[in-house]
Specification:
The chain has about 750 residues and is mainly beta. The protein is built from 8 helices and 41 strands. Belongs to the TonB-dependent receptor family.
Length: about 750
């Protein structure tokens, strides 16, 4: 591990040296110019008193609806050692992020998100999530496109409820709005190196500064990895980890206050070994069919936390993109913004069967995804009676999938699957998806009185989605080329009242329709005919009443709300047991309702205390033809479907809460030191769309502790930190899925990890 870290640091420093030299030279010229100007102009000294605000607070969009939102500053992420999107749920209550590998991530907020679940079967490319992820105002069609993690983040905002008016059709469940730091005209550079148990490593190098009088640049290089916490007893390999290498370069052009242009390009290359372990097997009618079939094939059964595999999973992902954001300050205070982007994503998996003998291997769905977008937005001047924004967004996507399931050319597949027809079989699936969406939008705030604001907005998403699915060699199927067209409206209305200084209350209502889908699966048409290949848009209505207060001179910040969300034509999974195929369907409706509250305390300059909680009662109000759980399908005379109406929504913990505290002080020699602690807990939830008791995820809590110190060194600052994540070694599952014959497989959560971080900032 030491050699890998040294090599990475060496490469990072070499890449940064030319840029640092240019930055230093340009900085010297800038200092000479500033000194000359200072000798000619007398500057009066001005003292400003006020409440300190973070970068995130300064970036608030005045046209953004004042509904529930959690903001996390990038510096706070670094202090709390949070570097991945999945770890974000340990800081923000109400959000649930479930991931088994970078190509498979589901996000839900208040129980609204990825209804499909994708528990098994063909990877279905016809349905996006209803929680939208944005990076620097660019929509990411899949959360896995956030490959470089949360490094060099300026701030993150998690928005709850339907957000389709400002963020588009696929934001009916909420939004993760992520912003990175822009190039600076003040020279700066940093290197951060973290190392921990089980091969944990994270290296980030950054350099930024002026490249001319009106041009600045920023370069980030990142490497991360870990060996994983699963051991293959046959080979000794550590699995369920991976490595990622990437970089992001930016250029910022400024013409005074009249024009700015920010150009960005990023690239990431990752290799991962996602590996579930066998959690349990179940007997039906006095017989454990899973153990019996493994024994018939001559396999060895090993229960977690380790595995016995003759072949291992590997996923290789290459992705990146470019974007350009231009901002003009027009006459009369109007602002025009243009955001243009192009992104690509390629995933190449080689997945095995999870057994000690070969049933199938080198399988999985290869994905090639390209997306592009163009947004224009005009902002009216602020400070008047009416603030408003008008805009037009275009989104395009083209995705291709090639999937294989390659069974061994031996008798073993037949012994395990009870059919000799699997011998030497290669089941091939080809899928294509073409998506185009054009959407005008408008949103504004009417300042009725100094105490009362009315915010209203509307958007119309005009979408054409088309694609096809072809399956060979088993249950042959050809969907033909399918096309669907929809106009998806979104709207919001919010009243904000400030009854006293420091107090604010609001009442909000919103409506949105999530993109329709194409059922790119053989199972659907065989189950319900060709019409079942078209998935209707999901309709979301939400309401919220909340209040916030800033007390004791800003040392106490309180926030709370009650919410209600109803989703109609819920997009989720069905299952054809004859063909063993998962397919998409519209499944009635669900309701999410609850209350959330948060508090931030800064009683002294030394203390920072945060706490937040969300109670969410999410349940199906109409889900009459749901996929049945294995405990039903494997019992005698199972029904073709099950009724989950009134049952809880999967991936929706009823209670989530988190708390953190930090104490800092300045000691001898000017050393600035701190200690901090955080704790996050979530209650139990169903882990699969069928609400199976076998895949129920137990509630768990994670505690982490950090201590560090730092000071001045030459022209910069150094810091050293020791940290321990999951300090009490809580055993938990990130995900559980049902397998063959009543077996259950799961992806383990990260065990206790002790590590250290060294950083230098110039």
């Amino acid at each position: 591990m030491r050699l890998r870290l040294q090599t990475t640091i060496s490469l990072a420093v070499r890449a940064a040296l030319p840029f640092l030299a240019l930055t230093a030279a340009t900085a010297a010229q800038a200092q000479e110019l500033a000194a000359a100007q200072a000798s000619q102009v007398a500057i009066a000294t001005v003292t400003v008193n006020g409440v300190r605000q973070t970068r995130a607070a300064e970036s608030t969009d005045p046209r953004r609806t004042p509904t529930s939102a959690y903001r996390v500053d990038g510096d706070d992420l670094q202090r709390k050692n949070v570097g991945t999107l999945e770890e974000l749920q340990q800081l923000v209550p109400g959000i649930n992020i479930q991931s088994t590998d970078p190509s498979d991530m589901q996000i839900s907020i208040r129980g609204i998100g990825d209804g499909g679940g994708q528990a098994s079967g063909d990877a279905n490319i016809g349905m996006p999530s209803s929680v939208a992820v944005y990076l620097d105002n660019v929509y990411l069609a899949r959360p896995g496109m956030l490959a470089n993690g949360l490094g060099d983040v300026d701030w993150i905002e998690v928005l709850s409820g339907a957000q389709g008016t400002m963020f588009g059709a696929n934001a009916t469940g909420g939004v993760l709005d992520i912003h990175t730091r822009a190039p600076s005209f003040t020279p700066e550079a940093s290197v951060t190196v973290s190392a921990g148990q089980r091969g944990y490593q994270r290296v980030n190098a950054m350099v930024s500064g002026p490249l001319g009088a009106s041009v600045a640049g920023r370069l980030n290089l990142a490497r991360s990895g870990n060996d994983g916490a699963v051991t293959n007893l046959r080979t000794g390999h550590r699995l369920n980890g991976g490595t990622a290498n990437g970089g992001r370069g930016q250029l910022l052009f400024k013409d005074g206050e009249a024009f700015t242009l920010r150009l960005s390009a990023d690239y990431n290359n990752s290799n991962n070994t996602p590996t579930p372990v066998l959690v349990a097997t179940h007997a039906f009618n006095g017989k454990d069919n899973y153990l019996a079939h493994v024994a018939a094939a001559g396999g060895n059964v090993v229960y977690g936390p380790d595995v016995d595999l003759d072949d291992e999973n590997h996923i290789h992902i290459v992705q990146g993109g470019v974007s350009a954001q231009a901002d003009w300050l027009l006459g009369g205070g109007y602002k025009l913004r243009s955001v243009t982007s192009y992104r690509y994503y390629r995933s190449q998996p080689a997945m095995a069967d999870g057994l000690s003998v070969r049933i199938y291997a080198d399988t999985g769905t290869a994905i090639r995804d390209r997306t592009w977008s163009q947004e224009l937005r005009l902002d009216a001047p602020t400070g008047g009676v009416l603030d408003y924004a008008l805009g037009l967004t275009y989104l395009g996507q083209h995705m291709e999938t090639v999937a294989h399931t390659r069974y061994a050319a031996t008798a073993l597949p037949g012994l395990f699957l009870d059919s000799a027809s699997y011998r030497g079989l290669d089941v091939i699936r080809l899928g294509t998806l073409r998506d185009r969406m054009l959407s005008p939008f408008a949103q504004g705030t009417w300042h009725v009185t100094p105490e009362l604001d009315i915010t209203a907005g509307a958007r119309a998403n005009v979408q054409e989605k088309s694609g096809s699915f072809v399956r060979y060699n088993r249950v042959p199927f050809n969907s033909g080329y399918l096309t669907e067209n929809h106009t998806l409206p979104s709207g919001t209305l919010v009243a904000t009242w400030r009854p006293a200084p420091g107090w604010s209350t609001y009442a909000a209502a919103s409506y949105g329709e999530k993109s329709g889908g194409l059922n790119i699966s053989a199972g659907a048409a065989r189950q319900a005919g060709i019409d079942s290949l078209f998935i209707k848009p999901e309709r979301t209505r939400s309401g919220e009443i909340g209040a916030s207060a800033s007390l004791a001179g800003g040392r106490v910040a309180l926030k709370g709300d009650v919410f209600l969300t109803e989703v109609g034509d819920f997009q989720t999974q069905g299952y054809d047991p004859v063909d063993q195929q998962v397919y998409l369907m519209n499944a009635g409706s669900l309701r999410s309702r609850g209350v959330e509250a948060s508090v931030r305390l800064t009683p002294t300059r030394a203390w920072e205390i945060d706490a937040g909680a969300v109670y969410n009662d999410a349940y199906y109000t109409d889900y009459a033809h749901a996929r049945c759980a294995p405990e039903v399908t494997l019992a005698p005379k199972p029904p073709p479907s099950c009724n989950l109406s009134g049952e809880r929504v999967f991936n929706a913990p009823r209670l989530t809460y988190n708390a953190s505290a930090r104490y800092s002080w300045t000691g001898a020699g000017g050393l600035r030191s701190f200690v901090s602690a955080r704790y996050a807990r979530r209650s139990w939830t169903y882990g699969s769309v069928d609400n199976s008791a076998f895949t129920r995820l137990s509630g768990y809590g994670l505690a982490s502790f950090t201590a560090g110190t730092g000071g001045r060194l030459a022209q910069g600052e150094w810091s050293a930190t020791v940290w321990i994540n999951n300090a009490f070694d809580q055993a938990y599952w990130r995900r559980l899925v049902n397998g063959d014959y009543g077996s259950v497989a799961g992806w383990r959560g990260e065990p206790r990890t002790l590590g250290a971080t060294l950083a230098y900032n110039y």
